[in-house]
Amino acid sequence: MSELFDAVDALLASRATLPPPAERKRLRAAHGLTIDEVATALKVRRATVSGWESGKTEPRPPERDAYARLLDKLAELYPAAPADTATSAPSPDAAVTATFTAAPAPAEARTLSTGEASEAAVMAATENAQTPAPAAPAAAPRPARTARPSSTSRRAGAKKAAPAGTPAGSADPRFENGPLAVVDVDNEGKVLAYCTGGLVLDVPVKSLPSLVEWTLKEARLGQPKLSGPGKDADPLLVLTEAALERYGLPVTLTEEEKHAGRIPEGHKVIKQLARAEWKLTKRGFGPWARIYRPATGSERACVQLCIPSWNALDSRHWGAAGQLPPAELARALGVYASRVMTPRGSTAVTGLELMTALHPPTRASEPDADGKRHSEHNPGSLGKDAIDPMNWPPCEVPDGHPVLKDLPRFHVRGPGEKLFEEAYDWARPMTDAECTLRHLVGIDVNMAFAAGANGLNVGLGEATHVKAPVFDPKLPGSWLVDLSHVDLSKVKVGKERVELDGSLLPSPFTPKGERPEGPAWYATPTVAYAVELGYEVRPIEAWVRYENGRYLDGWYNRLRDAYLATMADLGVDADLAPADFLAAVDGYKDRDPDLAIVVSAIKATVKGGLGKLRERPRGEGWRPGEPWRALSRPTWRPDIRAAVISRTRINLHRKIVKHAAFTGQYPVAILSDCVVYAANGPSPLDFLPYREGKPLPGGFKLGINPGLVKHEGTQDVLWGEEVRERFNAPELNLARYIKDGTVTDVDSGE
Questions:
Q1: Which residue in 115, 181, 462, 484 is a FRET match for 103, CA 20 to 30 A apart?
Q2: Is the CB of residue 383 less than 8 Å from the CB of residue 634?
Q3: Which long-range CB contacts under 8 A does 691-696 form with residues at least 24 apart?
């Protein structure tokens, strides 16, 4: 009989009433819940919840009844106004206020934070459902605090700290107040810590050593590890100028301190830390200082500082983040932390740290005979030891590397000695036919280098030298091979051979688009593309890596999801029709400038993280032929960087060839991930071959996903001819200036 009852319950659950998709999204956003939080509670993927909210898919049992219960509870808290539509969410003020009043306070009358209220709602909604979220452990006593919904107590007119949809802390009780806090001093002299989700904590300490102690013992800041064998993220404190003054630190650095990247060792605050037995890393007390005590067992005692007025938040990547009020800065950094990771330094440093966080070098072994576990190599990682500098293939390292110390001082390595896989910087004069068209239209590949990393097989260990190898497209490495015989006027596109005007195409084998003249070193994706185009390759020698894997897949997925989620928050969804997509992208940064900052930082994390794989010497008295600091990292891997750039360039060339074969149109200029075409109209839709809303298979496709393209900018053809004539540069790369048309000087490309 019980089986019959179960069957009936399942049947009822399968027909659980759900509101329309737009209303589902409104209810979640009204309570400040992220898609990730709902997905975690219901034990489904983020994309699954996103599909439910877009109407692409409908939930099935057993998740359907739990989801229905969640929405019912939220509908009780946030009923739609009679004159309202299902798609109009309440104002940020209303969302914050509702969050703070959604549940009664316990006996001690403390106010719920946004994160606590969000967690409580999800837990209540899924209680007794077939797939309920596990109950969180009881929280330990909390620090004295005040819940302040906005930063207006310090700055009149400031925006609310956490509009709907902002992450609100962690489900882990150790980090219930979120990954970070912006420490500031209000007009009354009170020190406050602005956390994610609109929560503000009172900071009852008067010195920097005490602030570090308070952070670790009471603030409940941090972030759970991203991978099983990994480590939890240390709490991040962002110190405003007022906080720097309060704790005895300079508001700005002197020129000498900027050059050194730190304040002097004899500074009074550093002495205070030393007396309290706190240590600094070798980089000292700089814009991204790390303060720690040596770990005892598995317990870490470390706090990361971020000091915007010392240029910790580089404006090239973080825009105006350093000038934001505390609550808004906490929001922007909090969104980045929840979707990427807690910043560990610059976006480049964080991009590299994300690779390690997702693939920790070691893991715990199985218990030995005595029941003890030991540290062992984590498969799929780069390991804990750097490659010996003298074991690097000479072709893969930059000039000045120790393995090249015996080269003559002024020797310039050519293509036959040096692997030179870089992004495109190519342009050509326009044809007479192109000059009769009216516009130059630039399209930009979204997250191009991230897309190049997706699914890429890269080396994990040291390289093996092979003479006269047979080329294997699945084997990562560097190959010395002559590709000068590849003729772009006759290539295979798919299964068919096509004839093109090769003079109007860049070579896929060199960054400047020049046809190679003899043997040169190439990464595996470049050589594989020559084979794809229908040509035979015979490598002379190679450095290959038999230990390999898709090391960057998790890194790509994390950054892709962060990018798509943030763009969706800005109104640019992944499933828009081409014309709607172009309209949505136009002006997206103005809809929420704080979130636009996050988008910029995510992009910089991709490029910077890949750049760090081949970090060059940074002063420190280095001389050519000597090792530099970065070489001691397992993540110093110029071969991986070269493979990603190679694949990114090849991906772009493949689309260009497909487009040319189908339309007869050729690019006028290419700069990295931006391609410029001459067209009769100002829109990408005026030259991209869409048919009934569908793009050319294998060609350019408008959309926000990594690898798809968006509109970069449009200028007149006459503008292009005029600037080239003005600078007497017939091959001036117009892709560099297509965005706004401003050309101040001939750019060297550096």
A1: 181
A2: yes
A3: 693/577, 693/578, 695/578, 696/658, 696/659, 696/662, 696/663
Place of tokens 């459902």: 129
Q: Is a pLDDT exceeding 60 seen at residue 140?
A: no
Burial of 636 (C-beta count, 10 Å sphere; 0-12/13-18/19+): buried
Q: Name, of 7-11, 95-99, 326-330, the range with top average pLDDT.
A: 326-330
- The total of other beta-carbon atoms located within 10 Å of residue 84's CB is 12
Q: Are 458 and 476 in contact (CB under 8 A)?
A: yes
- Kind plus residue range of the DSSP H or E element containing 160: none
**What is residue 107's DSSP assignment?**
T
- Going by the DSSP 8-state scheme, the letter that residue 263 receives in this structure is -
Burial environment of residue 60 by CB neighbours within 10 A (0 to 12, 13 to 18, 19 or more): exposed
Question: Among the listed ranges 156-165, 429-438, 504-513, which one has the minimum average pLDDT value?
Answer: 156-165
Q: How far apart are CA 54 and CA 704, in angstroms?
A: 16
Q: Extract the runs of DSSP E, i.e. beta strands, from 468-621.
A: 477-482, 490-493, 496-499, 519-523, 541-544, 548-549
Q: Is the pLDDT of residue 57 over 90?
A: no
Say if residue 695 is preceded by a cis peptide, omega within 30 of 0: no
Nearest-angstrom CA–CA distance, 564 and 574: 7
Query: What is the pairing mode between strands 548-549 and 458-459?
Result: antiparallel
Residue 409's pLDDT is: 81
Question: For residue 273, with 0-12 CB atoms within 10 Å meaning exposed, 13-18 middle and 19 or more buried, which class applies?
Answer: buried
The CA–CA distances, whole Å, from 469 to 250, 475, 509, 620 equal 60, 11, 20, 41
Residue whose C-alpha is closest to residue 214's, from 247, 168, 251: 247
